[in-house]
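Handoff note, outgoing to incoming analyst
You'll be picking up this chain. Sequence as last confirmed:
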Amino acid sequence: MINPVTLSLIVAAAAAAYGAGVAARRNLDRLGYRLDDELNRPTPAPRRWVEWVTATAVATVAVAAAAAPQPLLMLPMLPTALTGAWLSAVDLDVNRLPNRVTGPVAATTLAAVAITAALTSSASVAVLSLLGGTLAAVVFVVSHLLTRGGIGMGDVKLAGIVGLALGVQGVNQVVLALIVGSISAIIWAKVTKHTGPVAYGPWLLAGAWAAVALDAALGVAAAR
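Most recent structure output, in case you need it:
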C-alpha cells in the first residue's frame, strides 16, 4: 500500500508536471514547430488536454515507481512522460515528430538508463534497454519499409526511445507497448474510417503508458 508521504510526493510530481504541460501547450499554441509548407494548415482547436496528459503520465510513472521492487527502473520513462503530450499534439497536427525534440529526449533517456544502471549496479539494465530499443526500432524500420513510408522515420525514432525506456523493465514490456499501440491505431483508423497517413506517435505512446499503468496496477495489488 502506498503510504501518505509517498502519495503526497506523487501528487506533487503530478502538479509540477501539470505546470510543465501548461508551458508545453502555450508553446504549441505559437505553432513554432510548423515548417514553411505547413503554415497554411488549419489552426488546431485548443489543446487543453496536453497538461492533463502530461500530469497523468508523470503520475503513472510515480505510482509505478512507488509500487515497484526497484523504483529506479521507472526513471528512464520520465523524459517521455514530460514530452509525450507535446510530441503527440505536433504529430496529430502535421504528421511529424520533430528531431529537435526527439533528439534530446533520446539523449536524456540514454542518460537516465546509464544512471539507473550505475545506481542499481546492474549491467543487465543497460543490456535490456539496448535490446528493447533495438527490437522496437527494427520492428518499426520494417513497418516503414512495408508501408512505403506510411510509418515515418519519426515513428521509428520514437519507437526506439520507447524501447530504450521500457526495456530496462524487460523486453516483454516493449512487446506489450508495441502490440497495444498498434491495435489501438488500427481500431481508431477503422472506427473513424481514416484514410491516408496515420499520426502513429500518440498511439505508440499510449501503448507505452498502458504497459507502465499495468506495472503500476500489478505493483499496487501485490503490495496489499
